[in-house]
Amino acid sequence: MIKKMTINSIKKAKGVQPLVMITAYDALFAKLLEPSSDMILVGDSLNMSFAGKNDTLSATLEQMIYHTNAVCQGAKNSFVICDMPFGTDINSEEALKNSIRIFQETSADAVKIEGGEDKAHIIKHLCSNGIAVCGHIGLLPQAVRSEGGYKVKGKSEEEKAKLVKDAKAVERAGAFCMVIEGVKAEVAAEVAKSVAIPVIGIGAGKDVDGQVLVFSDMLGFFEEFTPKFVKKYMDGALLVKNAVKNYSDEVKSREFPQEIHTY
């Protein structure tokens, strides 16, 4: 049996062993990913991966609860984090109410909140009420429309200073770790050194405390484009297409089913 990570073991990993986080949205893939993952993130990116949307903003709390339940069912020994979807953490009370729903209706171990210094008071409120929180700073997918696109952060001294302030505010508020996304590598490294909790990178270079990728990106299922920070570990789309083509050909030629597939 896989030994499940805890908040303490995640914190203790900093400076010792890089942490592996990966997204999952269903029981089937969660079970496949569990043996090699320290944490599974049920990301609001599910509406991009599953629903073909252009951004994450349309994900609802009900969707996140449904998919988090599926992931928890498939990966019973994983530390599971549920994204707080857009509009569900606009103030402390709303965030607490919605986080309580996630904790009561799923087996999630934590929630993830986008934002730095501006969201610190909300993170503190959740942590003081029994909700474990993973922070998220840098490029914020939920702010993509207000910022006019996905823009890399840390390109100026001012942005670097803000990222360090954000990270320290998230840590002081009680988060046990944080994601840093779309940040210049040398700046992300400085941010990681500025706090005592793990900083998990995505598009933020290797000198942080771990990495997270969307499973459909790293397995090559998403064909439209490949972000610069993604490494494809297999060509999943081609494998699936070839397998389905083989099935189709065998059905049409009556090669399938054979006697061993027949009652």
UniProtKB/TrEMBL annotation:
Key words of the record: Cytoplasm, Magnesium, Metal-binding, Pantothenate biosynthesis, Transferase
Catalytic activity: (6R)-5,10-methylene-5,6,7,8-tetrahydrofolate + 3-methyl-2-oxobutanoate + H2O = 2-dehydropantoate + (6S)-5,6,7,8-tetrahydrofolate
Cofactor binding remark: Binds 1 Mg(2+) ion per subunit.
Metal-binding listed as a keyword: yes
Pfam families cross-referenced by the UniProt entry: Pantoate_transf
Cofactors that this protein relies on: Mg(2+)
Any single GO BP term: pantothenate biosynthetic process
Keyword Phosphoprotein: no
UniProt cross-references to InterPro entries, sorted A to Z: Pantoate_hydroxy_MeTrfase, Pyrv/PenolPyrv_kinase-like_dom, Pyrv_kinase-like_dom_sf
GO annotations of cellular component type: cytoplasm
Primary location: cytoplasm
Binding positions (3-methyl-2-oxobutanoate): D44, S45, D83, K112
GO molecular function: 3-methyl-2-oxobutanoate hydroxymethyltransferase activity; magnesium ion binding
Family: Belongs to the PanB family.
Its biological purpose: Catalyzes the reversible reaction in which hydroxymethyl group from 5,10-methylenetetrahydrofolate is transferred onto alpha-ketoisovalerate to form ketopantoate.
Subunit structure: Homodecamer; pentamer of dimers.
Record-given protein name: 3-methyl-2-oxobutanoate hydroxymethyltransferase
Native source species: Sulfurimonas xiamenensis
